[in-house]
Amino acid sequence: MLMRSKEATSAYRCSELGRLSLPFLLLLSLALLIPRLDGWDYAVGKYLWAEDGSVFINEAQRFGFASLWQPYQGYLHAYPRIVSYLSDFVDLSYRPIVLLLGWFIAYMFMICTLLLRSFSMGVSGLGVAIMFAAVVMQPNYGEVFFTLTNTQWFLAVGFAVILLAGEVGALKFTVFRLLGLLVLGLTGPFSVVILPVLALRAFYFKDLRTNAWIYGVTLICACVQVLVLLNSPRLSVNGGPIDWLNWSIVFVRMIFFGANTPLSWAAAVLLWIGVLLGIVRYWFAGGRDRDNAIQCLMLVVMGLLLIAACMYSAKSNLQSVLALGGGGIDTHGFRTL
User: Fold this and answer.
1) Which structural domain range is residue 311 located in?
2) Would 312 be classed as within a structural domain?
3) Of the four, 39, 50, 261, 267, which is 20 to 30 A from 119 by CA?
4) Would residue 38 count as lying in a domain?
5) What is the C-alpha to C-alpha distance for residues 284 and 293, in angstroms, rounded to an integer?
6) Model confidence over 79-112: pLDDT tens digits?
7) Which residues are 77's β-sheet partners?
8) What are the CA-CA distances from residue 52 to residues 36, 57, 224 (Å)?
């Protein structure tokens, strides 16, 4: 009997994990949303939030197809704009349902991206379940759930996992993948933030030529978002000198998930110890495990850059970025990373 190669064994393990755990994990990802529901009833517009109606629905109705490239808050929002534009084809009373469906698709995109990547790495079903719980149940104000405006945070997680933690090697070009990457790269500022980390990936894996189309599309999206930002008043908003001491304090608290009690500090420290030990363990294992360690490290760097970017966007009220003992800006996306 021939022995399986390491790659064949890994593929077999992945398929077995998927076959046994996939239904349970998908149901779990839905069940974890139940505590976020605002009751079991539904009224028209119940889950419309902030810019959902005042910006996206209104401008889709006003500008039509041209609304897709209307900037808001200093950058383009391709995905919310597309969903809002499609909602314009149904009666006004049904548009909130279309937006809610758009949010659900973005959420499941994040879930499926995390799920498939975890299975490809051989993570157990229990491990994936714990990860899902950590992602969905982490401290936040709840405003990222069920609202189209904040789908960018869920899409950003999938975007980062695909680009930074995807399978090593060439990703075949398809029109579907191109369109998907364009939508992700033109939704929020994340294509700009990810560029330096993506450069590290290209340097380590030496796949700039084999994955040139991915790097090129991401770079183009980042350039577009930078041009939009430079031509918007966003850079001058919340102006004033930077208080570096206050920035440092908030940055550290953000790194430790906004901890504000001894118990939450202890939990955050233990989590980081676990992450760092995992990276070190995989690094010294060598081979494919070392690649996994590098990819995990890149996701950590991506998260730190997102923290800095978020703090800059709220520099006049830094405490607002803290979900525990702070203000009201939710930062679910980069804490998930």
Assistant:
1) 14-33+45-336
2) yes
3) 267
4) no
5) 9
6) 999 999 999 999 988 898 999 999 999 999 999 9
7) 187
8) 18, 6, 23
Q: What is the mean pLDDT of residues 145-165?
A: 90
Q: Kindly tell me the burial class for residue 69, based on how many C-beta atoms sit within 10 Å of its own C-beta (0-12, 13-18, 19 or more).
A: middle
CA distance 310 to 318: 9
Find out whether 186 and 225 touch, Cβ atoms under 8 Å: yes
Domains in the chain, number? 1
- Residue 227 CB partners (closer than 8 Å, separation 6+): none
Give the number of other Cβ atoms within 10 Å of residue 192's Cβ. Answer: 20
Residue 39 lies in a domain: no
Angstrom distance (rounded) from CA 323 to CA 305:
18
**H-type helices in the chain, by residue range?**
6-31, 51, 58-63, 78-87, 95-120, 125-136, 151-164, 175-185, 190-205, 212-230, 244-255, 262-285, 287-313, 332-336
Q: Which two tokens stand for residue 156?
A: 């950003």
| Mean confidence (pLDDT) of the chain | 82
User: Is 110 in a helix, a strand, or coil?
Assistant: helix
Residue 75 has pLDDT above 50, yes or no: yes
Give a yes or no: residue 5 inside a domain.
no
Please give the biggest Cα pair distance in the chain.
72
